[in-house]
Amino acid sequence: MALRGKPVDAELVELTELARTAGAAVADTVVQKADRIDPAVWIGRGKSEAVAERVRSEQFQLIIFNGLLSPTQLRNLQDMVGSDVKILDRPGLILDIFAMHARSRDAKLRVELAQLQYLLPRLAGLWRHLERQQGGIGTRGPGETQIEVDRRMARKRIGALQEQIGRLGRARSVQRSGRESLPRVALVGYTNAGKSTLLNALTHADVFADDHLFSTLDTKTAALVFPSADGLQGPPPRVLVSDTVGFIRSLPDHLFDAFLSTLDEVREADLLLHVIDASNAEFRTQAATVSDVLSKISVDRPVLTVFNKADRLDARPDHLLREYPDSLFISARTGLGLAGLRETVRQKTVAPAAAR
Ligand SMILES: Nc1nc2c(ncn2[C@@H]2O[C@H](COP(=O)(O)OP(=O)(O)OP(=O)(O)O)[C@@H](O)[C@H]2O)c(=O)[nH]1
Ligand SMILES: [Mg+2]
């Protein structure tokens, strides 16, 4: 893995987590001082040569760069390490994880769209590569034509995907409007904060949760049923709770755009639960990333801040209470604080409706 500038440890931890989620074992990490950057290769010239040398001698299979490589940088680096070593930048790595975790047709279409848009400007590099392998006079002409063919096909496919995704989105919105008019709650938060675990704990939905980044690409909605108050007639009050795709710092633009409409649930929610992993040293940066995304997509819904994974801390730190006075402290895993959370959600959703 290659990082640039003065990376905080957290950035290294996160990149390692991403690599692990994608199935890579990290053999070594290289950090480049910010003042020695050669724009042609993203890191320093000397460092890039040293990396290429080590990659060859130790037969590493993959290099991951913690940033966005331009198509030219990618090509230059690829030329240095040779064609059998895979080079990924951070967006490429995240795209790969999304591709791995996409299950539904909808998620698969979205990931394919983002991948094609990411690949389109990089196609020329891929082809140059093949030409070089084949070598020889006469291979260039067909190669160049092939790039044009590929680009045209990619653009056509992008158009078709956008259309299909648009259609699915409209169908979903019709479906949503046909749902019972129950209050809606959406779980938002940084990837791995525990949103899916919390959805399961609150609603007994059977949503997949695990210790990998971006486990959830398909948002699931389930009902949270409150016990009926004594003496009240009729069905017990309920709200609909939706899981969402996790956020991450510098999410690739194409992915952001492709998954944007899945956040409609968030835009239309009556209440957002912002789930924060209290045990993560970087929780403040993570929470800020989430708030930034929410304001970027102009979500202006009431937010309840929920610090999760309390079981990993000894006690609720006083400073958190001061910094986030209205927040709750819970553990989706052990159930700690869930009764209080349910009651707060009830007060902020069904209780006002009943009082009307
Ligand atoms: N110790 C502890 N671990 C938890 C708690 N809640 C969730 N986890 C763990 O944190 C990891 C991530 O949980 P998920 O529910 O998949 O997180 P998520 O926010 O849905 O993640 P993405 O879908 O990847 O964005 C899993 O290994 C959970 O078991 C908790 O309260 N305490
Ligand atoms: Mg999840």
Structure, described:
With 356 residues, the protein is an alpha/beta fold. The chain has three domains: 2-93, Rossmann fold (3-Layer(aba) Sandwich); 102-178; 181-355, Rossmann fold, CATH 3.40.50. It is built from 14 helices and ten strands. The chain has helices at residues 9-21, 45-58, 71-81, 90-101, 105-119, 123-134, 140-178, 195-203, 253-259, 264-267, 283-296, 318-323, 338-348, 350-355; strands at residues 2-4, 30-32, 62-65, 86-89, 184-189, 221-225, 238-242, 271-277, 303-308, 328-329. Strands 6-7-5-8-9-10 form a six-stranded mixed sheet, with helices on both faces. It has a two-stranded parallel ribbon with strand order 1-2. Helix 12 (318-323) links the parallel strand 9 and strand 10. Helix 1 runs parallel beside helix 4, helix 4 packs antiparallel against helix 5 (105-119) and helix 5 (105-119) packs antiparallel against helix 9 (253-259). The radius of gyration is 24 Å and the shape is globular. Bound molecules: guanosine-5'-triphosphate (GTP) and magnesium ion. Magnesium ion binds next to helix 8.
